């Protein structure tokens, strides 16, 4: 474990996001940029993954977000919070991606293409920890699909408040809408999620309790 | 009865109220079946959301390396663009650029999917030895189709990107290329250096316990 002297010494080296970004902006400071990436790559990857429902696209988009941060470093306004700017950049990339995907689906003449992508997604997206049970994986996948049924507006607030734990105030800043709007979107989003999830998760539970009756779930699944 | 608004309930559910406000709402909940049932529904949705687990970030190199890889790929695309632009000093010939990078992309994709495929095989080998061969065969066929579809999609994306590039000017390429180059270098050396500094720092502050990794 970290010792106290180490921790306090380390805090001397910690600079705020805004200080780091200022260094990137004015001096092309490489260490500062690396620090920002390291601090934020996890949250941004998760945001993109939850917004697109796709692990690998999520990672690509997160890379692209940091690339934009660097490319647009001169546009950053030091008066604002760095994270607000970063979330906004990442969200816009997610929206672009979702729009591209929708266009592709609309223009795709070959239905197979969509099916094959779904197969690939199913193959790749869950990527569970090895000890995770199949039941949990199934339920996790159901929730992912349910969330993807919501419109972007509602999915955005759910992802940012529920999964990424941003305060309503911060979300309002990122989206540039009143805080009350974020909260009412949140209420509507939860209502819709409940409507979608209630029947399917209930059915899943019933199925699973039947499965676990007598034999193990795994052996049934195979 | 004066019901709290749904905005207030959101603040309550996500713990953004002070203790007094929170206690008031809680008290209301005990006396109002209408609000109680609404809040229960929202709570159910919240527990549902918690069931979507995503893998933990797969180590900190994950972003650093693809980032460098991505930057390198972009640099290739851009330098080809710049080269052609210089030769013709006219708008880029998209067909030419496409012909030049397609084999690269094809190979890259093939490598990526080969790796993906191997990973998946490893995983399934250890867990599903008992799985029926028929199921496996179907899965493989499906996967092969999926790979093909993904490839087509990527080409479309590349083509779209190239079409966009065509309309830009040579000057843009140079500044963008510089950014990309700088970033590729910055990211990698930055990470290495930060890591080195942490190691040195740990050695300095924990001489008695130097075997401890500073990256815990
Ligand atoms: Zn009430």
- Mean pLDDT of chain A, to the nearest integer, reads 82
| Poorly predicted regions of chain A | 109-113, 213-222
What is the CATH C level class of the largest domain in chain A, in words? Mainly Alpha
Order of helices and strands of chain B: HHHHHHH
Number of helices of chain B: 7
Average pLDDT confidence of chain B is 63
Distance between the termini of chain B: 54 Å
Low-confidence stretches of chain B: 58-73, 75-92, 125-133, 166-171, 204-216
Structural class of chain A: mainly alpha
Largest interface: pair, residues per side = A-B, 74 and 68 residues
Structural class label of chain B: mainly alpha
**Beta-sheet strand percentage of chain B?**
under 5%
Whole-number count of domains of chain A = 2
N-C termini distance of chain A: 42 Å
Indicate the percent of residues in helices of chain A. Answer: over 70%
How much helix, percentage-wise, in residues of chain B?
over 70%
In oligomeric terms, what are we looking at?
heterodimer
Provide a count of the helices of chain A: 11
Summarize the biggest pleated sheet of chain A.
Answer: none
CATH architecture of the largest domain in chain A: Orthogonal Bundle
């Amino acid at each position: 474990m970290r010792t106290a002297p180490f921790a306090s010494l380390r805090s001397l080296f910690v600079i705020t996001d805004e200080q780091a970004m200022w260094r990137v902006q004015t001096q092309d400071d490489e260490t500062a940029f690396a620090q920002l990436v390291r601090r934020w790559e996890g949250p941004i990857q998760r945001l993109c993954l939850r917004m697109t429902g796709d692990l690998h696209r999520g990672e690509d988009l997160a890379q692209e977000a940091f690339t934009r941060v660097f490319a647009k470093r001169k546009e950053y306004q030091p008066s604002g919070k760095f994270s607000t700017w970063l979330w906004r950049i990442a969200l816009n990339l997610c929206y672009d991606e979702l729009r591209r995907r929708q266009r592709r689906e609309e223009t795709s003449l070959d239905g197979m293409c969509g099916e094959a992508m779904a197969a690939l997604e199913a193959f790749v997206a869950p990527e569970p920890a090895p000890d995770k049970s199949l039941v949990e994986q199934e339920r996790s996948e159901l929730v992912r699909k349910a969330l993807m049924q919501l419109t972007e507006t509602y999915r955005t607030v759910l992802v940012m408040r529920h999964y990424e734990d941003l305060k309503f105030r911060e979300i309002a800043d990122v989206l540039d809408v009143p805080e009350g709007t974020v909260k009412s979107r949140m209420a509507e989003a939860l209502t819709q999620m409940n409507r979608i999830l209630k029947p399917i998760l209930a059915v899943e539970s019933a199925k699973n309790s039947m499965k676990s009756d007598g034999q193990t779930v795994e052996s049934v699944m195979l | 009865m004066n019901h709290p608004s749904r905005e207030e309930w959101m603040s309550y559910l996500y713990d953004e109220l002070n203790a007094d406000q929170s206690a008031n709402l809680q008290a209301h909940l005990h006396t109002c079946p209408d609000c109680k049932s609404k809040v229960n529904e929202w709570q159910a949705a919240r527990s549902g959301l918690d069931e979507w687990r995503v893998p933990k970030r797969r180590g900190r190199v994950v972003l650093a390396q693809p980032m460098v890889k991505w930057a390198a790929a972009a640099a290739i695309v851009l330098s080809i663009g710049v080269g052609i632009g210089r030769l013709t000093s006219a708008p880029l010939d998209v067909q030419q650029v496409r012909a030049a990078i397609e084999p690269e992309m094809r190979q890259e994709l093939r490598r990526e999917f080969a790796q993906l495929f191997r990973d998946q095989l490893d995983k399934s080998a250890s867990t599903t030895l008992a799985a029926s061969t028929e199921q496996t065969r179907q899965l493989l066929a499906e996967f092969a189709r999926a790979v093909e579809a993904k490839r087509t999609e990527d080409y479309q994306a590349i083509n779209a990107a190239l079409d966009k590039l065509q309309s830009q000017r040579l000057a843009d390429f140079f500044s963008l290329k510089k950014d990309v180059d700088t970033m590729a270098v910055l990211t990698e050396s930055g990470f290495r250096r930060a890591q080195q500094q942490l190691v040195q720092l740990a050695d300095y502050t924990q001489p008695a316990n130097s075997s401890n990794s500073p990256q815990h």
